[in-house]
Structure formats: C-alpha cells, structure tokens
TrEMBL record:
Keywords: Cell inner membrane, Cell membrane, Membrane, Transmembrane, Transmembrane helix, Transport. The lineage of its organism: Archaea, Methanobacteriati, Methanobacteriota, Stenosarchaea group, Halobacteria. Residues 63-263, 332-522 form the ABC transmembrane type-1 domain. This is Putative iron-III ABC transporter permease. Its main location: membrane. The keyword Transcription regulation does not apply. CDD domains: TM_PBP2. GO terms for cellular component: plasma membrane. It is found in: Cell inner membrane; Cell membrane. The chain crosses the membrane at residues 20-39, 59-86, 98-123, 143-163, 202-224, 244-266, 287-315, 335-358, 370-391, 397-414, 450-471, 500-523. It comes from Haloferax elongans ATCC BAA-1513.
C-alpha cells in the first residue's frame, strides 16, 4: 500500500500501484502453484494407464456415489433452509429471534463430529438401540452408507442456504407480494411468481456452498463408510496408490468446476429492489404449532443429539486407555496456535488483494482476486495431496513442518478474508483517505490512520472466520501435520479410528466452545441481524 503513486502496466482503466499489484500477484501465484504441481503429476501418468484408471468400474462408482450424495444433500438443504428462512422472516412464528439463532448454530458443529455422534447414537449397539432394547427393539435402520452421509451433511450444511435466503427475504420489497395478493393470487402463487425469483440468486449461492462443502467433506463419508471422492482419495494415498489418488483428485476438481458453472446458470440475472417497505407478516394461524415443531425438530436433531452424546461421554468419563489416546491440553494449544497463525497470515495476505480489487478495478485485479478463490473451491484432501507432492519434491526444507501446514490453511481459507475485506474497503468513501493526503499524510499514513480503522470490523470478522474454519479443517491437517504434532481434530480422528469414542468427548467439546466464540466474534463484527 505504500507505493500507491507508482503505476503498473495495463489491464484496467485506472492506474494501479506497482507494489500493490506485485504483492497481489505473488499471493495469487502462491495459491495456484501447488495445484499446478498436481496437474503435472497427473500428466506424468501414461495416457493408456490414466484412461484405464478413470474408466474402471470402481472409479466410475465413486463418481456416481459422489454425484448422488451432492444432489441429495443440496436438495435437502434447500428443502430445509428456504422454509426455515421464510418462517423466521415473513411469518408470525413465535420467538422468531430465538429460532433464528437455533437453526443457525449447526454451522458451528463440524460435520465429522456430527457423524461421530450419530454413529454412536444410532449405530449398531448405539445409545438409542440400548435404550430401546428392553422394548424388544433389537436393531435400528442402518446409519452407515448413503442415508447416514446425506442426513449428517444436510444437518450441518443447510444453514448456508438458510442464512443467504434469509438475508434476501429481509432485503426484498414486500409491497410486490401485497400487489400480487390484491390480484387474487394465493399465497403459494405469490411466493412462486414474486418471492422465489427475488430470492433465487441467494438460494443458488447458499446451495453452491452446500454442494461444495458436501463434495469436499472427508470426515463424514469416511465415518459413514461411504465411498465418495474424498474418502477414496485418502485411502488410495495411504495405500501408496499415488496415480489413482492424483487422477481422482483431478476428477474431483473437474466436478467442482462443473458445480460452479451450473450454479451461475441457475442463479440467472440477479434482481434487486430498492425503496420498498416491509409489509405485514403472514399469519400462521393453526399452522403456528406445526411450524414451531418443525424448527424445534431441526434444532433437536442437529444440536441436542450430538451435544447430548458428547456430554454423556464426558459425564461418564473415559475408560483407561494407553497414554497415546489420553487427551493432553497441548492439543488445544496446538489447534489455537496454528489457527491464530493462519488467521494473521491469511488476513495480511488478503489485504493487498482485497484493496487492489476494491480500489483499482481492472482485469488484472479481478484475475488476482478470483485466483485466490481456487484454494477454497478445491477440497482440502486434494489441496493436502498437492502440497504433499509439491513439498516432498520442491520444498523439502519446510516439508512436514508447521510452515507448510499453515501455508495450506492460508491457501484454503484466504478467500474468506479477501471477501470480508473487499466488502469493507468498498464501504469506505475514497474521499476520506484523499482528504488525509491533502493534509500531508503519505499513502501509507492515510491507509494506516484512516482506511484501516474503518475496515477493522471486516478485518476482525474475516480473521475470525479464517480462525474458525482452520480449527475445524480435517483432511489437510491429517496429510500435512508434522510428525508428533497433534491437534483437537487429529485426536478426535484417532479416537474414532481406535474405536474409543469416549476419548473424543473433551476435544470435541473444546472445539465446539472455541468455534462458538469465533462465531460470536463474526456476528459482533459483521452485524449479523437475527431480528
């Protein structure tokens, strides 16, 4: 930012600071390079061998499994998120603010913890089966496989659709709905012809996030024993099937790009209305109690079940196990350490990219900004695999060190900081730092004394979001952590693989507590409205 008076070559209508452009380009290159190494590794596989690997029945089945999983979860998320958003915004649902918070909270719970708890509750010889045994119930419906994966992923990804749809409903002009009603449209017709086109872009954005999360999630398919892309890639890599893991990773990236393309087609033209007023809410009448029951049922299944299981494990204590499975406070410290380092580094790296995109719009700044989103679109298991290949070949001094682990986290989650900061920079009137310049401030001084304090809430909110998602990241941590370095998520995973579920209680509860605090910071700094 210190060299704003210098200019760079083309790509836009305004002059771009050379130093800022170089810094943004360096960040974009750092995100892209490891993934290019994944492509190079795949190209090293012979064409005939690659074709045989991607067309064999087991590989085709993995593709079909992942496609079915994404379609079912995304549809279920829309089916849950849109009605809940409508109930909490456009109806007289009792205690709307309370239910808004309740149905948003599942976003704090990592899906693999939810899967862990659901297996313990509903799996063979699980808690509920033991409770029902005296009544003659010898078994419950199978929780493993596709049904369990769809259930768990839906419960912990639908808030993406809920939050985006709710924001769109709150900002739309409800006089249009009133006009439709005066033309003798039923409530359903008014919703279909007026409300749905208005909120479609927001619903599509939330559905995109849900689909990408489902496609990239590793923990839930692994725990539910469902052969999706991420689980098979991790298993193949562990079994030294490097070629298969690489080609599956590229297939997964291809499916991710396809989802992004489909979302842009479904979203269509974004419609905005301004100057409208908020109309009267819909009276639920006799449907009020079923609506409350619906919101309560979602809250109970998504929150009470996993928390109840974890608290039961905690209250009962854990059986004596080997020292390697005993929880150590350093695991929490390690998680906080790498998450805080990622939040700091990621936010600092996002500053030049976000500032350039907000203040110097051009093809170059847009390219650099979009490039930073590649890491977020690529699943963590693929990114981890790419950095394993890259680090072991070209970055051996930092391979299996915390530096490479933090680097992976930054690549994965920097878009969250970029998005938050760019929105904050756009809200700052450019005349304010210019006024500071006329009073003798240098470009750096104007940025530090005027712009930075104004964007501080967005900066802190973005850093908190990066911290939160880093705390929960599982596959990249498993693939890239240094030998002997254990965190909350790695200990939870070790407890799962060893079959000692009780050992996961303490680290899981700590993770949920820290995640809740991070979400509180995000809500406070970014002003999330629950009214």
């Amino acid at each position: 930012m210190a060299t704003e008076q210098q200019t760079t070559t083309g790509g836009g209508d305004d002059e771009q600071p050379l130093g800022l452009t170089i810094a943004s380009g360096a960040v974009a290159a750092a995100v892209i390079v490891p993934l290019l190494w994944l492509v190079k590794t795949a190209l090293d596989v012979g064409f005939a061998e690659a074709l045989a690997l991607v067309t064999r029945p087991t590989t085709v089945q993995v593709f079909i499994n992942s496609t079915i999983l994404v379609v079912l979860v995304t549809a279920a998320c829309v089916g849950l998120g849109v009605p809940l958003a409508y109930l909490t915004v456009r109806t007289d649902l009792p205690f709307r603010r309370f239910w808004t918070v309740v149905v948003s909270l599942p976003l704090v719970i990592p899906s693999y913890i939810g899967a862990f708890a659901f297996v313990s509750a509903f799996g063979p010889r699980g808690v509920f089966q033991r409770l029902l045994a005296p009544l003659g119930v010898e078994s419950l419906p199978e929780i493993y496989g596709l049904p369990g994966a769809v259930l768990v992923l839906t419960l912990y990804t639908y808030p993406y659709v809920f939050i985006t749809a709710r924001a769109a409903l709150k900002s739309m002009d409800t006089t249009l709905i009133d006009a439709a009603r005066t033309l003798n449209h039923t409530r359903w017709e008014a919703f279909k012809r007026v409300t749905l086109p208005q909120i479609r872009p927001a619903v599509a954005a939330g559905a995109l996030l849900a689909a990408l999360y489902t496609l990239s999630d590793f923990g839930t398919p692994a725990i539910m024993r469902f052969d999706a892309f991420t689980r098979v890639i991790y298993v193949e890599f562990g079994a030294f099937g490097r070629d298969t893991a690489t080609l599956l990773s590229l297939q997964l990236v291809g499916v991710t790009l396809l989802i992004l393309t489909l979302e842009s087609m479904i979203r269509g033209d974004e419609r905005t209305t301004t100057g409208g007023r908020s109309g009267s809410v819909m009276q639920l009448g006799h449907w009020k109690y079923p609506a409350v029951g619906f919101a309560a049922l979602v809250g109970v299944v998504a929150l009470v079940v996993p928390l109840g299981i974890l608290l039961t494990w905690f209250a009962q204590g854990v059986a004596a196990t080997s020292r390697s499975l005993a929880f150590q406070p350093e695991y929490a410290f390690n998680s906080v350490l790498v998450s805080a380092a990622t939040a700091v580094v990621g936010t600092l790296a996002a500053l030049p990219v976000a500032y350039l995109a907000a203040r110097h719009s051009s093809r170059v700044s847009t390219l650099f900004e979009r490039a930073t989103y590649v890491g977020y679109a690529v699943p963590g298991v693929v990114l981890g695999l790419a950095l394993v290949f890259f680090g072991s070949s070209y970055a051996t001094p930092i391979y299996q060190t915390l530096y490479l682990l933090v680097f992976a986290y930054v690549i994965r989650f920097i878009p969250q900081a970029v998005g938050s900061l760019r929105a904050s920079f756009l809200r700052v009137d450019p005349a304010l730092p210019e006024a500071a310049r006329t009073l003798g401030e240098t470009p750096t001084g104007a940025f530090r004394h005027v712009t930075l304090p104004l964007v501080a809430p967005g900066l802190l909110g973005g850093a908190a979001l990066v911290f939160l998602t880093t705390m929960k990241e599982l596959p990249a941590t498993l693939l890239l952590r240094p030998a002997g370095f254990k965190t909350l998520v790695t200990h939870i995973w070790t407890a799962h693989e060893s079959g000692y579920f009780g050992q996961a209680a303490v680290p899981a509860l700590i993770l949920l507590f820290v995640s809740g605090l991070s979400m509180l910071v995000i809500i406070t700094q970014e002003g999330y409205d629950v009214k």
